[in-house]
Write a structure and sequence with these properties.
Elements lengths: L1 H16 L3 E2 L5 E4 L4 E3 L2 E11 L2 E10 L13 E6 L6 E3 L22 E8 L8 E7 L10 E6 L3 E2 L10 E11 L4 E2 L13 E13 H11 L3 E6 L9 H6 L2 E3 L8 E13 H5 L2 E7 L2 E5 L3
Parallel strand pairs: 2-19
Antiparallel strand pairs: 1-2, 3-4, 4-5, 5-8, 6-7, 6-9, 9-19, 10-11, 10-18, 12-13, 12-14, 14-17, 15-16, 15-18
């Protein structure tokens, strides 16, 4: 009898302390309000709500081990998991700046080993598209998974071999701007004065894959793929389209969809020749976690 009780107790303890379950496309998954360990942080997401067509979520995180490698707070990025028309992401720190006083406690690192506050994602009007929230770090790279492609104005990406990564990337549009906000057209390539100073480029891309193959590859890899564009040198004059796009995106569609089809945008910025003529888009395996809603 004592042996049976010991076994049952061990099973119960294991169930209570078991790691997050395998989730969509190699990410870990847990319901809202449950702790998951991601990139050295014990993290909880809860209280998903709406404010002015933005999704708000409260984040509490602490370092699992302050002496172990972990993601920098400024690298943690959050996104909407579900069926939005295109990915909606934001870096957690600073994500609520646009809402101002509507979010009195935006995400902040009050202590070196802790994060607390609200993350804001949007805008998004279709509330039924939200099935959860995911988190990842663009700085996290699974070993031996990075493949980089050149991107240049005005063509964007040249045709790529989808067998490189299992992901097919096609350019849907390219927009380029000088730092003073003046848009550039292809004929500007013949004007050396047009390519002086700083500038930025917005790449509109479509990422496509066979869902079953992408899922199998992601599980074997240990996480989904992300797209990372560069360079991203700090500069003034970035337009709202560039700020909204960001320089990275996680390819994590809702798991029940029959295919992987993710229309997205990425922005490169900095010295204008580097950002427009010698930019790159990298496809990289990364670790991610998803917190799902009950609906």
């Amino acid at each position: 009898m004592r042996a049976l009780i010991a076994v049952l107790a061990a099973l119960l303890l294991g169930a209570c302390s078991s790691p997050a379950a395998s989730g969509p496309y190699g990410a870990t998954s847990a319901p809202m309000s449950q702790v998951q360990t991601l990139l050295g942080w014990d993290m909880t997401l809860k209280n998903l709500r709406w404010e002015v067509d933005h999704v708000l979520i409260d984040v509490t995180a602490k370092l699992s081990n302050a002496d172990a490698p972990h993601a920098a707070p400024s690298d943690l990025r959050f996104g909407i998991y579900g069926t939005p028309a295109h990915p909606i992401e934001a870096t957690g720190l600073g994500s609520c700046d646009a809402l101002g006083e509507l979010t009195p406690t935006p995400l902040a690192g009050a202590e070196p080993d802790q994060l607390n506050g609200t993350v804001c994602l949007g805008p998004l009007k279709e509330r039924s598209a939200v099935r959860g929230i995911y988190a990842y770090s663009p700085a996290d790279r699974i070993k031996d998974t990075t493949v980089a492609y050149g991107a240049a104005f005005p063509v964007g990406l040249a045709p790529i071999n989808p067998y490189d990564t299992g992901l097919m990337l096609t350019t849907q549009g390219v927009a380029a701007f000088r730092a003073d906000g003046i848009p550039l057209v292809p004929s500007a390539l013949g004007d050396p004065k047009a390519f002086s100073g700083n500038g930025y480029m917005v790449l509109n891309l479509s990422a496509d894959a066979i869902a079953a193959q992408y899922r199998d590859d992601a599980v074997a890899r240990g996480g989904p793929l992300m797209l990372v564009a560069g360079p991203t040198a700090p500069m003034r004059g970035l337009g709202p389209d560039c700020l909204a796009a960001g320089s990275s995106v996680l390819i994590l569609p809702e798991a029940s969809l029959n295919s992987v089809h993710v229309p997205t945008s990425l922005c490169t910025h900095g010295e204008i020749n580097a950002a427009l003529l010698y930019a790159s888009v990298s496809v990289v395996g990364t670790h991610a976690a998803v917190w799902t809603t009950s609906s």
